[in-house]
Design a protein that fits this description.
alpha+beta; 2 helices
């Protein structure tokens, strides 16, 4: 199974991001369930959460805390329509 990478992303609201993958599929994902522990804990602060970027080397979104979410997880959530 090919792992699709994130090529673009933007903040929508709350903990929802809109992502575009390398196959050009686009959708929204609510990532709140991944937040709250370890390097993800500071991201409960929405101002910090909003400061994510797409890391081309990792193929996913990442934050200054060192947190990132595997692109295959984000892709699966997007396809499942989990917002």
């Amino acid at each position: 199974m090919k792992i699709h990478e994130v090529i673009d992303g933007k903040y929508i609201k709350d903990y929802i991001v809109e992502l575009v993958f390398d196959d050009l599929k686009k959708g929204q994902v609510d990532v709140k369930r991944y937040l709250g522990k370890g390097v993800f804990k500071p991201l409960l602060d929405k101002n910090m959460f909003k400061q994510f970027w797409v890391d081309a080397k990792l193929g996913t979104i990442t934050w200054v805390t060192g947190a990132d979410i595997a692109p295959e997880t984000l892709y699966k959530d997007m396809l499942a329509g989990k917002k």
